[in-house]
Design goal:
Pfam families: TIM (PF00121). It is built from 11 helices and 8 strands. With about 250 residues, it is an alpha/beta fold. The chain is globular and about 45 Å long. The protein binds 1,3-dihydroxyacetonephosphate.
């Protein structure tokens, strides 16, 4: 059975005190939940990872990073390597978020390198992709998503996919309050599974968790998560307070 995942992408929010407080509230909140098949992940900013790791140790809450550099080490001022993340005990990293693609010039080629570096270091990759509004309006969204997945991931051998989680985040729905309808999310997720099955095989495609991201809130999560090919969410705004985030964790 595929894992369900609720991952909070804290983006550039929360100082160290706020981060540890939020993590504490989430750790306490999940204590009494039967999570069964659901993974709960939080992703603080780099500077707050160590403190949040301490708070979450021994709990059901996993900590992941929002990004990393593709190089092993060296003269890359301001950057963070995969090995630095694993040395903190992290198991996963988000790569390819649309904000990284748009504001930091991360191309498909760079992302493929980042994916390789993360996997080589034993990290699971939560790989994000999604179309902008123009693409959806011109009915080009399937092509865009296919090419982002193909260029970022299809060079991988099948066995590497056990460490891949996909996150479909239509850019027009991120932080806008506008959500893809559950039907639009399901349609895209089914398409994604189909292209992964065509490249690899049906079993592999059936085993990949595909998250939806874009204005997921307690009020709409149940309906979105109920779709057969939606395995959870990558959450921005609603991950910044524990009550909303814990409600999402219980929305399956
Ligand atoms: O970008 C997102 C998660 O990575 C989604 O952000 P919002 O939930 O704020 O729309």
């Amino acid at each position: 059975m595929r894992k369900q995942i609720v991952a909070g992408n804290w983006k550039m929010n929360k100082n160290v005190q706020e981060s540890t407080q939020l993590a504490n509230e989430i750790v306490n909140g999940v204590k009494d939940l039967t999570l069964d098949n659901t993974r709960v992940i939080v992703t603080p900013t780099f500077v707050n990872i160590s403190e949040v790791v301490k708070v979450t140790e021994g709990s059901a809450v996993e900590v992941a990073a929002q990004n990393m550099h593709q190089a092993k080490s060296g003269a890359y001022t301001g950057e963070i390597s995969a090995e630095m993340l694993t040395s903190l005990g992290l198991k996963s990293v988000i790569l390819g978020h649309s904000e990284r693609r748009e504001y930091f010039g991360e191309t498909d080629a760079i992302l493929a390198e980042k994916v390789n570096s993360a996997l080589a270091n034993g990290l699971e990759v939560i790989f994000c992709f999604g179309e902008v509004l123009e693409d959806r309006k011109s009915n080009n969204h399937f092509n865009v998503v296919e090419s982002q997945i193909k260029n970022g991931l299809f060079h991988l051998p099948a066995d590497a996919w056990k460490n891949i989680v996909l996150a479909y985040e239509p850019v027009w729905a991120i932080g806008t309050g506008e959500t893809a309808s559950p039907e639009q999310a399901q349609e895209m997720h089914a398409f994604i599974r189909k292209i992964v099955a065509a490249k690899y095989n049906v079993e592999l495609a059936e085993n990949v968790s595909i998250l939806y991201g874009g204005s997921v809130k307690p009020g709409n999560a149940k309906e979105i998560f109920s779709k057969v090919d939606v395995d959870g969410g990558l959450i921005g705004g609603a991950a910044l307070n524990s009550a909303d985030f814990l409600a999402l964790v219980q929305s399956f």
